[in-house]
Amino acid sequence: MQSRKLRFNKTDKKKWPIVVSIIIASILIIVPVTWIGLHNWDLDKSLSALNIATQADEPTQIISDTQDKSTGETTDEEDQNPVPNEKPKEIETPDESPDEPKESPSPPVEKPANNMYIPNQKHPTSATIIDGFLVVNKRYPLPTDYNIGEDPNARAGFNQMAAAAKLDGFDLMAFSTFRSFERQEVLYNQYVEKDGQQIADQYSARPGYSEHQTGLAFDIGEKNFEQHWASVSFGETPAGVWVAQNAHFYGFTLRYPLGKEEITGYMHESWHYRYVGVEAATDMYMHKQTLEEYLEL
Ligand SMILES: [Zn+2]
C-alpha cells in the first residue's frame, strides 16, 4: 500500500502542471462560451453586459440602438432587445468633449407628409404621374380644369366585378365616380359649413384634391342597401366583404384602409375604391399597401 501510494504521488506530481494547464485552458474556453450562450449568442450585448457587470473602465464603449446615448445607460436586457433580429449595433468611442453637439453632421431629410395640405399651395397646371400612376392626395392636387370624366378602363373593370358579384348574389352599384372640380367645391363647402373645416378635411377632399376628379375613383355600394352607402358599415356587410376580397381581381384597390389614416390622410372609407389595374391592385392587396406605400411617396 505504502509503495503504491508513493508511486501514485510521484506520478501525480509529474502530471500536476499539465492538469492545471488543462483546467485553466478549459475555464478560458468554457466561461466565454457559456457567457455568450446565456446571452443568446449576441456578442455585442454580452460584451455590453460584461462591461456593466465588471464595472470596467473600458476605453471603448459599445452602445446599442436602444441605449440612451446622452447618459450611456443600458436598460434591462429584456426590454432592450425585444426583437431577435436587430440591426447591427454601432460602436462609439467615448465622447472626449462633452460640450460637442450630439447631432450628426447631416440630419436626415424629412419626407413631406401625404396626409397634410401644404399651406397656400397653388393648383398645378398638370396632373402628377408617378411610375405611371396618376396620384391625387393632400399633397398632390389636380389642375382645376382637369375634367377628363369617368375612366373607361375603370368602368370596364367595375362592370366585370359587378357581373362576378351578381353570380355570388350581390348587386353592386357605383354610386359616385367622376366628380368635377366645381362639383367637389360645392360638396366641400357644404361639409365645412356643417362640420367646420378641421372635421370636413378628415372625410372630404378640398376641391382639386379629390380622387374622384381623376375619374378613377369609384364609390361602391349595394343596390337596395342605400343605408350603407358612403358608410363604414358597408365594409361589414356581406357585399362589402366580398368587394374587399375581390376588387383587386378587377383592378381596384381599397384607397383609404383602416389603420392607414396617417399615410393616406383620410379616415377609413370601406366604399371608396381606386382603379389602378389588376397587377398593381393585386400587388397592393397582397402586401396590404396603400397607393402611397406602393409608390413609396
Ligand atoms: Zn369616394
Give an account of the 3D structure.
By secondary structure, this protein is α+β, with helices and mostly antiparallel strands. The chain has 2 domains: 2-92, no CATH class; 128-294, Muramoyl-pentapeptide Carboxypeptidase, domain 2. It has helices at residues 2-38, 43-54, 77-80, 152-167, 181-195, 197-203, 238-246, 261-264, 278-286, 291-294, and strands spanning 61-63, 90-92, 128-130, 133-135, 172-176, 217-222, 252-254, 272-275. The strands form 3 sheets. It has a 4-stranded antiparallel β-sheet. The protein has a two-stranded antiparallel sheet with strand order 1-2. The longest helix is centred in the N-terminal third of the chain and has 37 residues, at 2-38. The termini are far apart. The structure holds zinc ion. The site of zinc ion has 5 residues, from strand 6.
Please specify the SSE layout and strand pairing.
Layout: H1 2-38, H2 43-54, E1 61-63, H3 77-80, E2 90-92, E3 128-130, E4 133-135, H4 152-167, E5 172-176, H5 181-195, H6 197-203, E6 217-222, H7 238-246, E7 252-254, H8 261-264, E8 272-275, H9 278-286, H10 291-294
Antiparallel strand pairs: 1-2, 3-4, 5-6, 6-8, 7-8
The chain binds zinc ion.
